[in-house]
Amino acid sequence: AGGDAGAAGTGRPSEVPSEVGLVYVAWRLGSLILCANLLFNVSLQYTSVSSATVIASSSAVWTLLFSAWLLGEPLSLLRVASVSCGLAGVLLVVYGGAGEGAWGDDEHHHHPHAARALARISHSAAAVAHRAELKHALGSAGLVASAACYGAYTVRLKREVPSEKEAPLPYLFGLMGASLLAAGPPALLLLHATGVERLELPARDNLLAICGNALLGTVVANLLLARAALLTSPLVVVVGLSLSIPLAMASDVARQRERLTPALLAGALAVWLAFLGVSVARVPKDGGLLGRMCAHCPTRCRHCAGLW
User: Fold this and answer.
1) Degrees, nearest 5: CA angle 234-237-241
2) d(CA 151, CA 56)
C-alpha cells in the first residue's frame, strides 16, 4: 500500500529499477546537483551575496512548477501564496535586516579579478559601468539556472525514487558519487590543459577542511534533504531550506554582528509562515489551479510529464 501511495504521488507505477537503470538515475541526479552547485559558486563571483541569496531562494518557484508538471501536485492557492510569502520574507531579511556586516555587498560584488580588469579599461566611465552590468547580469542568469537545476533535482529525486524500497538512499548517493568521480578527472585535466582552472593538490590544512565540509555540508546534508523529500514533498524541502536565512541572521544578532530590526522580524516570520503553509497544504480533489486548467487539455499533464 505504501508503494502504491508513493507511486500515485509521482504519476507513474511503482517499479523497482534495474541496476543499469539505477546507475542511469544516479547519473542524471548527480549531474543536476553538480550543475546547481557549480553554477552557484561560479555566479557568486560575479554578483553580490545578497543578490545571490535572493535569487537562490527562487528555487522554490521552480520546485513548485516542476512538481505540478512532473508529480501532478496542484498549484493550489495556499502553495502559491506560501512560496510568494517566503520570497518576500527572504527579501526583507536580506535587504531590510542586513547592515554593513556579513551580508554586505562590498566584499563580493565583483569577481576577484574584476577590479584589475576594470582598471585596464580607460576609455570612459560608461565602458566601466557597462562591463560591470554585464558581469552582474551573467551572474544573475547563472544563479537563476542554478535555482532551476536544484528545483529539478529535488523533483526528479521524488519521481525516480518515490520510496527507499525502490533504492536505498545511501546506495543511490554512492552511485551518484561513483558516476561523477568517473567523469570528473577527465574534465579537470581538460580544464587544466586549457588554462581555465589550475589543478593542484591543496595544502594539508585546506584538504582537511575540504574533506570535513564535503562530509557534513554535502553528503550528510544532502542525504537528510533527500530523505525529507521522500517523506514529505520537494516543495516542503526547498522552502524549508530558506529557514537557514533568518536563522543565520538570528545568529548574527546574537553575536552582535547585526542589530535586530522590524524588517528582520517580519522577514523571519514570513519565511516561517511559508514553511508552515506548504507543510499543511492539502491536495484538492480537482487538482488545484493546474488541474482545472488541464481539464480542458485533450492530452492531460501526465502525458507531458512522461516527456521528461
Assistant:
1) 140
2) 10
Interatomic CA distance for residues 271 and 41, integer angstroms? 24
In one-letter notation, the amino acid at residue 27 is W
Residue 164 corresponds to which cell in the numbers above? 527507499
C-alpha cell at 46: 560575479
Rounded to an integer, what distance in angstroms lies between the CA atom of residue 23 and that of residue 191?
Answer: 26
Give the dihedral of Cα atoms 144, 146, 152, 153; nearest 10 deg.
-160
Chain segment 213-259, per-residue pLDDT in tens: 888 888 888 899 899 988 889 999 999 988 888 887 777 778 877 77
What pTM was computed for the model? 0.73
* Cα dihedral sign, 272-273-275-276: positive
**CB within 8 Å of 273: residues ≥ 6 apart:** 82, 85, 89
Work out the widest C-alpha separation in the chain, in whole angstroms. Answer: 70
